[in-house]
Amino acid sequence: MSKITIRPVCRLCRRAGEKLYLKGAKCESSKCPMISKNYPPGQHGQSIKRAKSEFLRQLSEKQKAKRIFGLNERQFHNYYKIAVKTKGVTGHEFLKLLEKRIDNVLYRAGIADSRAQARQIVNHGLCLINGKKIKTPSYQVKIGDKFEIKERLKKSKLFEAVKSKKDTSPKWMKVNLQELKGEITAEPSKDDFEKNIQTNLIIEYYSK
What CATH number does the domain located at 1-50 have? Predict the structure, then answer.
């Protein structure tokens, strides 16, 4: 399993200057450090004020997107390489690949509170795709794929809160939170992508 950092993940949000929603419910609560410490981490965090160069803006956006999806540099760059070779708008194809990862699908479906939790679910073999156990968080879902939590775990306390959630899943999937399952019904579209990622900056960074 790939780890993006050994530091507390809340520091990553403070470094980015915005919520990256890396800790699930805590990010929505009053305990979120972005409420009480909305400045970069470190001894001089409150006093740092510098204008960002174009390169720094590109680098910062790339780092932010990596942290949102919980990927290391090699994984993230590989998705860019695939997107460049795919017919269509590179930025859209890039985000589409990230959206179709099974760990992201479980998070988007509402079955997991965060992408980190979704990766744990997959790594521990608790997720089924078309009835078969999958243990690869990077698995790319396809239209028609059906995903669900193992039957014997559907009554587990781990997923009790999930069943009472309101369905906020994107329109490219059909989800039944009561049954902890769903189906991919379409390809992710531009309207479904993460709204706070500027892919043009990431593409410019890698295309140099």
Answer: 1.10.1050.10
